[in-house]
């Protein structure tokens, strides 16, 4: 992810760029009047476990129904319009013929309750003073609450607005974009669109979300008396660098265990646990979870567990073949340098990154998921050819055959010439004092790709690790306050361009 260096969140404004006086005054009013209410609303929104379920469609899921009902109820109580279109909620204000779209989402990724001090679906305001901890606090229920009270403050003050502002809350951003595509076909598209699902200052480029799924089949080994991998799995979902992975070794010898422990000791950032279980040696690796668009902020438990198993020639059942594949073609790096010729970088968007996100059993065998974030600079056709060529060569060299391989290559997105980039930068510069702030690129993938003239504006500062998709998601009190100021000013400035 391309990043810029910034200093403290709240700097003196004397030398900062200017926004209109009405934007400044309304932003100050929003914080003074509604900061506490905004935080309370965030607490109401995060209590709903709006996680997509394969066994229960959204329209029958009470968590989604409750979230939508609460959101619309809150919006109407604040004097805003609210319409429920199934997968899309529209909260709106103003009557202009043209529109500004503020794009966000109400669904969240799964969370493992065992890894949180309190329930991930309860706003934890006390465990770590200054932090508001919950699934969705940063991605993306915090921004929703912020946008609601920015709109309320503008309405209170009767600020003249040339354009209608519509907050577009999509309910399946983390799982399925097709319903949004269907909705947008008949939607009167805003002239200016701003997603609040990324980072500051202004995101004008997003890498393409891509994936290589490699499946190995077979549980039988030729010699059941020698050591072999009975099991290898890890990860939680497909856009998270995993913080936990597991392996089970049948027939371990003292020499093999000693060698594995010695190699594990070379990775002090990873915690390895060894135990005897059902006559096998069970190994657990614990790393640090993070959003897979920013693998540099995590410690990939799957990759490092495969690495400590890499000095032994494992029989090529599904687990053994998977470990061999990971060590040969992926490794513990994050730039896909080992995967043949696919590594490259773009001068603005930065390098392609790669992160193993899951290894799990399915009906085909044992499948590993390599999440790639690709910038501009190589065509999908070339990358697809290079990926398959590398896999074919590896299969010939090792004599190990994959049961299945599936490659998905999403397109990078750029909006370098969006007309509201500079006004958004002015808002950011004004409220942070960072006068040299400019457009940035991210590894993440937002719904900006589906709308015209769409760029991203927050909620995360560019010098901070994004906590969404991690098992310690939070937004700071200071950041939520700053976002309320900037979102209030942003709506006023862009609606009056």
Automatic annotation (TrEMBL):
Residues 1-17 form the signal peptide. It holds the Pfam family Peptidase_M20. Its cofactor is Zn(2+). Keywords: Cobalt, Dipeptidase, Hydrolase, Metal-binding, Metalloprotease, Protease, Signal, Zinc. InterPro entries: Bact_exopeptidase_dim_dom, M20A_pepV-rel, Peptidase_M20, Peptidase_M20A. The keyword Transmembrane helix does not apply. SUPFAM superfamilies: Bacterial exopeptidase dimerisation domain (SSF55031), Zn-dependent exopeptidases (SSF53187). Belongs to the peptidase M20A family. This is Dipeptidase.
């Amino acid at each position: 992810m391309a990043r810029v260096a910034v200093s403290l969140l709240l700097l003196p404004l004397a030398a900062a760029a200017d926004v209109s006086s009405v934007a400044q005054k309304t932003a100050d009013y929003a914080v003074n009047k509604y900061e506490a209410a905004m935080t309370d609303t965030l607490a109401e929104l995060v209590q709903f476990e709006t996680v997509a379920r394969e066994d229960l469609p959204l329209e029958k899921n009470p968590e989604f129904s409750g979230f939508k009902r609460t959101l619309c109820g809150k919006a109407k109580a604040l004097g805003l319009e609210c319409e429920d279109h199934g997968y899309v909620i529209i909260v709106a204000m103003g009557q202009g013929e043209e529109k500004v779209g503020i794009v966000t989402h109400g669904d969240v990724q799964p969370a493992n309750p065992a890894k949180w001090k309190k329930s991930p679906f309860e706003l934890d305001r006390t465990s770590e003073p200054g932090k508001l901890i919950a699934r969705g606090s940063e991605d993306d229920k915090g921004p929703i609450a912020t946008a609601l009270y920015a709109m309320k403050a503008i309405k209170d003050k009767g600020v003249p607005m040339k354009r209608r502002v519509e907050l577009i809350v999509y309910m399946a951003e983390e799982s399925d974009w097709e319903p949004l595509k269907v909705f947008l076909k008949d939607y009167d598209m805003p002239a200016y669109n701003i997603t609040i699902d990324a980072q500051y200052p202004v995101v004008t480029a997003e890498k393409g979300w891509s994936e290589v799924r490699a499946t190995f089949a077979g549980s039988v080994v030729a010699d059941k008396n020698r050591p072999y991998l009975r099991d290898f799995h890890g990860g939680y979902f497909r856009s998270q660098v995993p913080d936990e992975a597991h392996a089970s070794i049948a027939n371990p010898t003292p020499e093999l265990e000693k060698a594995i422990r010695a190699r594990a000791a070379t990775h002090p950032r990873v915690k390895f646990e060894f135990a005897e279980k059902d006559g096998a040696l069970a190994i657990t690796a614990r790393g640090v979870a993070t959003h897979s668009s920013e693998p540099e902020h995590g410690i990939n438990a799957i990759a490092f567990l495969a690495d400590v198993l890499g000095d032994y020639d494992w029989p090529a059942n599904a687990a053994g073949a998977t470990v061999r594949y990971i060590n040969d073609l992926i490794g513990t790096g994050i730039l896909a340098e080992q995967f043949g010729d696919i590594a490259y970088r773009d001068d603005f968007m930065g390098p392609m990154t790669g992160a193993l996100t899951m290894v799990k059993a399915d009906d085909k065998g044992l499948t590993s998921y390599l999440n790639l974030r690709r910038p501009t600079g190589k065509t999908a056709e070339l990358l697809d050819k290079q990926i398959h060529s590398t896999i074919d060569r590896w299969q010939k060299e090792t004599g190990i055959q994959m049961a299945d391989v599936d490659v998905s290559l999403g397109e990078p997105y750029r909006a370098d010439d969006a007309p509201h980039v500079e006004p958004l930068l002015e808002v950011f510069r004004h409220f942070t004092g960072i006068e040299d702030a400019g457009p940035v690129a991210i590894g993440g993938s937002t719904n900006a790709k589906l709308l015209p003239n769409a760029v991203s504006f927050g909620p995360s500062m560019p010098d901070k690790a994004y906590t969404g998709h991690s098992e310690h998601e939070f937004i700071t009190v200071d950041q939520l306050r700053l976002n309320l100021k900037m979102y209030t000013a942003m709506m006023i400035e862009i609606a009056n361009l």
